[in-house]
Amino acid sequence: MSESSFAVALVHYPILNRKGERSTTAVTSIDIHDFVRTCAMYDVGPVYIIHPAEAMHALVKDVAGYWLEGAGEARNPGRTESIRSLRLAKSLEEVLEAETYRLWYTSATPPNGVSVNINKTPKIKGKHLIVFGTGSGLDYEAMPKPNGWLSPIEGIGMVRHLSVRAALAIYLDRLTRERC
Questions:
Q1: Structural domains of the chain ordered from first start
Q2: Are 49 and 21 in contact (CB under 8 A)?
């Protein structure tokens, strides 16, 4: 095992809505597929989907079941292999009770403007969890204190809100650039 390893979490609660209020978003099948495939490409995992509702857990299990036990396994073995990294949890605290991770939160606007370049994290020994939020971002005040915030992704356009799937791909590409 290398001196550092990485996992990711996609948080659906607690997140902020457009008004800045604590809220919950729904899990989408595209998030499931894109997160596990992108993480598999960069050899990152496990992939945690965080949602408090049993109905959303049932949806994720149904989608994963098609690839793990249904016709999807024969149709696309690569997808089956990548979906094996998928984990469900009701909260980030539940993940941290089972595993010890250094937490790194992501945001277009980190609080206090203090952040760490993702390229520096592989030099920090241990298991790392990169946490992504849905909606209008993580409600970090209702979450465990992170080890730090990753530097935001800067673009040249006027929009400062990437899809979470695009942000994941950019962060992981930067994370693993030196290993490729």
A1: 4-176 (3.40.1280.10)
A2: no
